[in-house]
Write a sequence for this structure.
């Protein structure tokens, strides 16, 4: 595949209160997706209130002045739509997908809870318990979840990426209603948000509705900048964690550049070659050639301020974890010295480009890619540039980024070592 720049018919409008709006008309089906992205994630927290961004994702569904608890979801479901939300390191996003004749409904509902969220102690108490149970299930009692949490905590010592999106348990127990009110007033504001509307609509109908419901919402304060900068890592960091698990697990992460950096295109190709799918180098080495693991993979996490490139392996129960670690890291070393065969390189680029373009086929996929590019990488236009940028990656680019970023001095290793279930 050799595509040029993708052209998306994006109309960008800035409302008078600083709220950015991206409109994309798509007539393929009589539906629309309305999304609002707040630049408020775990990155914007501090010790004492870690997890509050994700907690808000839950509380936003618990009612506002004119819409009762759970009624937001019920109203969307009643018209045959779907809705949900997610929290990441850099953002929290809320979205609806509805028939196009229901265009006004999600616009109204999102503006209503932005202006009139019902923040009460009862909601905080109940949702805190839900989030704490989520933490126990997905992190504390899940070997891979615990490994990822510790990988970020050890790789980032100073920057807010140090703490998990779900928050530390002690903070979840300590967050007060006043903490919530201050956080909401600071980060849930028009000048800290981006609206994305994609689907079968007319701009001359949609834009007046968005202005009607959002333009009169005032900003309370300007969100403070994140000033913490992660210092240069000067040596391997590692931790062995003992827990009840079926087999050893290893995660190896290297520092990577922030999402807006051009090197991420080459790193995406490197990640595909190393750790994506059964044809990847790490998978073939660990599962087929040496038969020391039952699963292996990896990804590049590109964030607003930093990035982390990691690979992992779920070892065989009887495997020597030191040997698994060596075999895993050997594949990174090979990329630094060997030139990738053209066939292998082109396959990776073609697959990445195809996956990216396929992700733009749906209205939801378009909106997600635009939201990610705008709020995390800093400009939505990256969506149009990415396929061509991936195809421009050369074998020399791969070798260069491997030598630059797969540096043992910026490596963090987390190993989960199984222990038997002791009865106390």
């Amino acid at each position: 595949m050799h595509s040029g720049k993708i052209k998306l018919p994006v109309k960008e409008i800035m409302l008078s209160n600083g709220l950015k709006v991206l409109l994309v008309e798509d007539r393929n089906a009589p539906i629309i997706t309305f999304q609002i992205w707040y630049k408020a994630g775990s990155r914007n927290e501090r010790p004492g209130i870690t997890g509050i961004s994700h907690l808000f994702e839950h509380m936003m569904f618990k009612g506002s002045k004119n819409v009762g608890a759970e009624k937001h979801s019920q109203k969307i479901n009643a018209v045959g739509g779907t809705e949900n939300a997610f929290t990441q390191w850099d953002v929290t996003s809320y979205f609806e997908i509805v028939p196009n004749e229901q265009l006004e409904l999600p616009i109204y509902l999102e503006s209503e809870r932005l202006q009139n969220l019902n923040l009460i102690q009862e909601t905080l108490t109940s949702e805190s318990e839900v989030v704490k149970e989520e933490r126990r299930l997905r992190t504390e009692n899940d070997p891979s979840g615990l490994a990822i949490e510790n990988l970020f905590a050890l790789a980032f010592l100073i920057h807010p990426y140090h703490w998990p999106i779900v928050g530390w348990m002690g903070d979840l127990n300590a967050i007060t209603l006043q903490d919530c009110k201050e956080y909401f007033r600071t980060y849930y504001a028009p000048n800290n948000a981006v609206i994305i509307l994609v689907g079968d609509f007319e701009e001359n109908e949609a834009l007046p509705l968005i202005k009607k419901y959002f333009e009169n919402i005032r900003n309370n304060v300007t969100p403070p900048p994140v000033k913490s900068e992660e210092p240069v890592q000067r040596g391997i960091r590692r931790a062995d964690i003992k827990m009840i698990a079926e087999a050893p697990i290893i995660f190896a992460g290297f520092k990577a550049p922030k999402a807006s950096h051009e090197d991420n295109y080459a790193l995406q190709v490197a990640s595909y070659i190393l750790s994506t799918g059964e044809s990847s180098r790490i998978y073939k080495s660990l599962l087929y050639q040496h038969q020391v693991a039952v699963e292996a993979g990896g990804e590049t996490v590109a964030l607003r301020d930093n990035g982390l490139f990691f690979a992992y392996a779920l070892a065989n129960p009887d495997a020597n974890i030191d040997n698994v670690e060596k075999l895993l890291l050997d594949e990174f070393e090979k990329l630094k010295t060997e030139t990738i065969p053209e066939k292998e390189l082109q396959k990776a680029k073609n697959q990445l480009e195809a996956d990216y373009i396929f992700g733009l086929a749906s209205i939801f996929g378009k909106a997600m890619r635009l939201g990610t590019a705008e709020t995390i990488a800093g400009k939505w236009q990256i969506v149009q540039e990415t396929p061509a940028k991936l195809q421009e990656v050369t074998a020399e680019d791969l070798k260069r980024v491997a030598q630059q970023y797969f540096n043992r001095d910026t490596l963090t290793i987390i190993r989960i070592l199984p222990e038997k279930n002791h009865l106390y």
About this structure: The CA atoms of residues 15 and 215 lie 6 Å apart.
